[in-house]
Structures are given as C-alpha cells and as structure tokens.
Amino acid sequence: MDMPEKATRVSQPRDLKLIVEKDVQIPMRDGTVLYADVFRPDTTDKVPVIFNTSVYQKDKLWVPPADLEEEANPHMNWETVNPLWWCPRSYACVRVDSRGSGRSPGQSEPSSYQEAVDSYDAIEWIARREWCSGSIGMLGISYHASSQWRAANMQPPSLKAIMPWEGRADQYRDQAYHGGIFALGFIGNWWLTHTAHHLLGRPRSYNPDAFHNDMMWNMMRNDLDSEFWRMNSARWDRINVPMYSVGNWGGFSMHLRGNTEGYTCAASNHKKLRIHTGTHFHPFHSEEGRTDQLRWFDYWLKGIDTGILNDPPVKLEIRTGGSPKRYEFRYENEWPIARTQWTTVYLKIEREPSSETDVAEGELTSERPAQEVKLTYPASGSTKAGIASGSSLATTHGNTGRTGVSFESAPMPEDTEITGPLMLNLWVSSTSEDMDIFVSIRNIGPDGKDVSEVGQHGQPVPCVTKGWLRASHRKLDKEKSLPYRPYHAHDERWWLKPNEAVECQVEVWPTSMVFRKGHKLRLDIQPRDGVGSAPYTHYHGDYNAGAENTIYSGADKISYLLLPIVPPK
Q1: What digits encode the pLDDT tens for the residues 162-195?
Q2: Under 8 Å between Cβ of 266 and 239
Q3: Where are the domains of the chain?
Q4: How is domain 341-565 classified at the CATH fold level?
Q5: Which of 171, 221, 305, 378 is most solvent-facing, going by the fewest CB within 10 Å?
Q6: CATH code linked to domain 18-332
Q7: How far, in Å, CA of 55 to CA of 164, rounded?
Q8: Alpha-helix residue ranges (DSSP H) falling in 92-234
C-alpha cells in the first residue's frame, strides 16, 4: 500500500460496562413517536453518537458468517456498527426504527423526505441527552448509507460528520431506473421481502400495520425524473457536513455511482473517497475498515488528531483480476485521477450476429472505421412460451441463448489499468418506438474465459462494470454532463422512428481493473441483462416484443468506448 501519514492517536478500548436501553421513545415534531435502541458505555463522560435509522428492524438479530473480522454477538444488526466494538471506545450507538417499520408506528415511507425530517428530529433529540456530548455521526451500509444523504440534506446542527458506506444517492438514477430502464429485479424482491419480514415476522404481534406503503406503485407511476425523486435523493448543494464517501467496485448496479457522485458534487469542504472490493459487509467489519471509520469519527466527533485529514483524499483498492481476497490500496489526490489518459476505442463491425456464447461480432480498435456498417439483432428473446410479453415469466425467464452483440479488444500488449468512469457513444435504431441498451464490460483471460470478481453477496461475478440506457431517454442535461460521464435529464421521452438512427451516450459506471498482458476487454451490447447482472435485473417493456434493434459504426456514425487508462505514478 502507498501509505499516508500514520494516525497519531485513535480512541482505545476501555473496560466499560455496556448500558442497553430498549424501545426508547423519541418524539417527532408532528406528535409521532419513533422507537430506538440505545447502546452506551457506563461512564460519567459525555460521549458522541453513531446514529442509524432504517426499516430493517432494530430488534432483528444478524448472525454474521464465521469469517467476519468481528465476532457474532447478541447486539449485531444488519449493515450497522457493532456496539461491543464502539462503546468501549467511548461512543454510543443509536438505532431507530423508521416510521411505520419495526416498533415505530405511522405511515411507512421508505427512503423518503419524511424519513429525513424524522432523522433531523431524532438527531437533535439525542444530542440533548445528558450522556451525549452533542456530537452525532452517521455510519452504516446501503440503506444506512442512503439515509445519511437525506439526513445531511436537512443540515441538523448536531450532525458533525457522515460516512455513507456503499450508499446510493440518486434514488432515480442509482436504484430505480438505470438509464431510464426500471430496475425491477432487486427493488421488487427487496420490497416483497421486507413486507414479509414485517407482516409474516415478529413485528406482526406489536405493529400489525407496519410497512404498509405504495412504494413500488409510486416508483413505477413516477417513471420520469421529477420533484418526487429529488425530494427523496441527495441534494448536493445542501450537503455541507464533513463526508467520507465509501464505495465498492462490485456495487456497479446500485451504490457505487452515489459514492463517486457524492465525492465530486457535494458542497462539503471536507470530503474523502474510498472504494474497495469484496462483499457488501466484510470490508465494513474488517479491522482495516473499522480503523478508517474510527479515525474519521475520532477527528470530527472527538477532536482527536488522527492524521486522517493529512492523508490524500482518495483511497482506491486497485483490482488486478480474479482474486477472492483483497487487493492493495493506492492513494490518489483527486477523482477522476488527474493523470488519466482518456482513450477512445472504436467499434469495428466485422461479422453478422451469432448465437454462440464466445463469439465477438467485432473489434475494439484505435482506428476509426471509414465505412458505415450495421448489425441487427432481435430485441426480445424467445422462451418455450414464445415471446410472452404479457406473462410474468417474460421478465424472469428471459430467453434461451445469447442476445445482442459483442466487441473485443486485441490481447493487451502489457498490463493496462482502467480506473474511472467510462462512456459508450452508440448509434442505434429500432423497428420499435424504443430500445434498451444493456452494456457489460468483461475481462477475458488468455483461455477465453471470464475473470470473475467477488460480488456484493459473495458470488463470483464475471463482469467488470455495467451501463444502461433506454434510447428514448437519450436527452442529456448539458450543464451536468461531462465527456466521460453523461448525465441524462430523464424528464421527457424522445421516441424512436422506425429504422431511423440516433446517437446515444451511455453512462457506464466507474470501475478499476488492471487488464493483464494477454487479456482482452470485451464489450457486450444487449437488449436484456447480461452476465453478472443478478440480482440487479430489469423490467423488459413490451416495446421489445418482436422488435429488431440495429447498431451502427463508421463514417459519420461513430460508435466508440471512452476508457480511463491510468499510467503508473
């Protein structure tokens, strides 16, 4: 690791008895009461607080896997900090059941503006407790990270620092509609599962109307970006609290974009960015991860000079391909990396589409094709039920065989690092009024097989990163777009005319991968979810049924992939 200055001091554990207060009632401004659990050390010293709020039920025990670097105990809770580690270091931990979930009554509104207002009220109420120092920090994974952006929007005076660990920030672009395509797979299952956790689980006995919401209907009803989504998302101009944004290269289907956008866009004067690898929870509970957390909150909540602000602001785990273990971290001074060599590789079409899995229809080349060539492929796959767009199986049982087309680079002449955001500029047409573009970037070894990375759920993922765009959503917000990161407005649809070619810029989410000498970069362009998508899959609309899609490259229709190639320091 390219080491920064070492920490001068961090809080050391003390032999303090743990005080556990269950079902503490926290009053909200509208008269509602939310329920919280408070874990704090038995000391006369006033202590700062690590605050969490979610719909995941504060009373629901998480039994971690045996290889976690923190031992299981009766106080573990999904995606939150471990009180048995933090409280001996003179912190209190507070977990709040969001309105309408767990023990808390009220109308359930997951990931909402109301939840942000409630967070403000809870933070300020906790800050006034006689045992509290008045300094509150927020730390947690996923939902516990996303809720931090919304709380920070409200600017509660006692919130002194946040550390959103793998947290989506834009509810429309990061979670619900990837490139305008509804991300049904994960969010639909998430909603059903948590409804079941409440109605078929223990909350039924004490909060029988919990988690009653129209979340999925509202998401699908609001299928363009609007104030509905802005109210429920990070507002970067309002987030000025010190922020350590933590992403995961494997989170390319939900959280990673929020962490990189947060670092580049938030108004905070003090910002840091860290991106690691591994599962959704192992890095958070690792000794190395907890050390970063403690250094951050010791500085901002206790005023201890841990050296954290002397470190370079960006800390990246650089993937070199195929390791089930962690990679080495490297420190950088900015994001994207200043020495990036933005490199254009053109799509050169060479052959007709094939159903064979490993065949590529074209090449990724540094030479711009002089002649226009096009490739046409079916927009919908066929199952044994035919093209059953009216069947529920149409979204889950996709198709038989390979879809779309692929392009491959020549074998890398030397180890080549690609770290940063990517962009695919693509000319397309369809026989339908719309077209879905699913992009996968893959690392192909000399044996012709995918090099897999560890996914968010511990599964092998044969994919480096992904991008998506529904062609009717190709309109760009020109003020927010960058050459390497298009920003789509998603506020109106530009429908396709049959067989009329249009230019689309596809945002491909950031990544880091060293493509080893002899490896190839493979680009898949598909009408459906490709390899390594599950469980983050999408709804395939009926405009796909029976349609044919075409991509173009050459002459005045230049289709290309923009790569962030990073030379050694």
Answers
A1: 999 999 999 999 999 999 999 999 999 999 999 9
A2: yes
A3: 18-332, 341-565
A4: Jelly Rolls (2.60.120)
A5: 221
A6: 3.40.50.1820
A7: 17
A8: 113-127, 143-154, 184-199, 203-206, 215-221, 227-231
